[in-house]
Design brief:
- With about 325 residues, this protein is of the alpha/beta class.
- The chain has nine helices and 15 strands.
- It has helices at about 45-55, 120-150, 165-175, 190-200, 230-240, 260-265, 280-295, 295-300, 310-320; strands at about 5-15, 15-25, 35-45, 70-75, 85-90, 105-110, 115, 155-160, 180-185, 200-205, 220-225, 240-250, 270-275, 305, 325-330.
- Strand 11, helix 5 (about 230-240) and strand 12 form a beta-alpha-beta unit.
- Helix 2 (about 120-150) packs across helix 3 (about 165-175) and helix 2 crosses helix 7.
Length: about 325
């Protein structure tokens, strides 16, 4: 590990909150049993909230944010990792209570790491990041859980809400690659062609899914991925067929859910909560190994913007204002 390297450091003294790119010493890092040379990170909405004011997630300052990163192990005393291993880290509250990936080097608990599959490179793993892992969890829950774990009928027609977002757009592609007929929900008419290029068979406007939901509506979907919550999720539940699984992972529209027991006791619908932060490493490794088979990176690249660490400070306020589109990848070697 180099003695001096670059990192984005947050600090708070009284009411004064600061964010600054600094040259720091390896002694600045907290203890961890694996030392990683970070190659890539990414800018998620949660990262932007933390960069604004800590978002009540950061408890100690100074702090290095960045909830995702990929890189190469330089030193390790963890039994599963050795020098030269290429790794991926998402979740486990790294970037919140532990130092994160907005740094050219990181010390981390090896229990938080997974080995990068050979069919992904380090950059591609951060094109996915937490959003990609969440989409993988949602897609496999909506389809494979019903077909394989519950020995149910084939999942054919699925719906994805918030399909223009990071999780939703990747779920559209993944479910399409898994053989489903995907209906995408979006509030942005300008994204219809893009969603169809990802594999959506049809696209409907969010306004069609924000009416007051009936206890049960016509059954349309064998499964669903919901990233927004609120009335959209209420309508999805009412329209889900017998034994369908709705994988819910977001609350962009509302945290409240006004529904009845009818979809659950009449049709056996399952509302399956998705939390990628503390998913088991065994599950993570399986999903990362599957990712390369379900993603067409040539298509995703059209919406990727690669920036350096200095540019993060300029971009995050725009993300919070809804002025950004696509996904931002941070190259720590730039």
């Amino acid at each position: 590990m180099s003695d001096q390297f670059k990192a984005l450091v947050l600090n708070q003294e009284g009411e004064n909150f600061s964010r600054e790119i600094k040259s720091i010493d390896k002694k600045f890092l907290k203890e961890g049993n694996v030392k990683v040379k970070v190659h890539y990170s990414c800018l998620n909405y949660k990262d932007a909230l933390i960069l604004k004011n800590g978002a009540r997630l950061v408890k100690e300052f100074p702090h290095i944010p960045g909830i995702d990163f990929s890189g190469v192990v330089e030193e390790s005393s963890h039994k599963n990792f050795k020098s030269g291993d290429e790794i991926i880290l998402t979740g486990w509250r790294v970037g919140e209570i532990y130092f994160g990936g907005y740094s050219q080097y990181a010390n981390v608990n090896g229990d938080f790491l997974v080995k990068k599959p050979k069919n992904l490179d380090l950059r591609q793993s951060m094109i996915l990041g937490t959003a990609g892992l969440t989409a993988l969890m949602c897609s496999f829950t909506a389809k494979a859980t019903r077909e394989e774990l519950l020995l149910g009928e084939k999942v054919e027609n699925v719906i994805v809400s918030g399909a223009s977002g990071g999780v939703g757009s990747m779920a559209v592609m993944m479910l399409s690659k898994l053989g489903c007929n995907v209906t995408a929900i979006t509030g942005k008419e300008s994204n219809i062609d893009y969603l169809k290029s990802l594999g959506a068979k049809s696209v409907i406007n969010t306004s069609e899914m924000t009416k007051d939901a009936r206890p049960l509506d016509k059954g349309l979907w064998d499964g669903a991925v919901d990233t927004v919550g609120g009335k959209v999720l209420e309508n999805i539940l009412a329209q889900t067929k017998d034994a369908g699984i709705v994988a819910a992972c977001g609350n962009a529209a509302d945290i409240k859910l006004n529904t009845t027991v009818m979809p659950f006791i009449i049709r056996g619908v399952k509302l399956w909560g998705i939390n990628s932060v503390t998913a088991s490493n065994k599950r993570r490794q399986f999903l990362w190994n599957e990712a390369g088979k379900l993603i067409d990176f040539e298509i995703l690249e059209k919406s990727i913007k690669e920036i350096n660490l200095d540019e993060v400070i300029d971009v995050y306020p725009k993300m919070l204002k809804g002025e950004t589109s696509g996904r931002y990848i941070i190259n720590l070697n730039k």
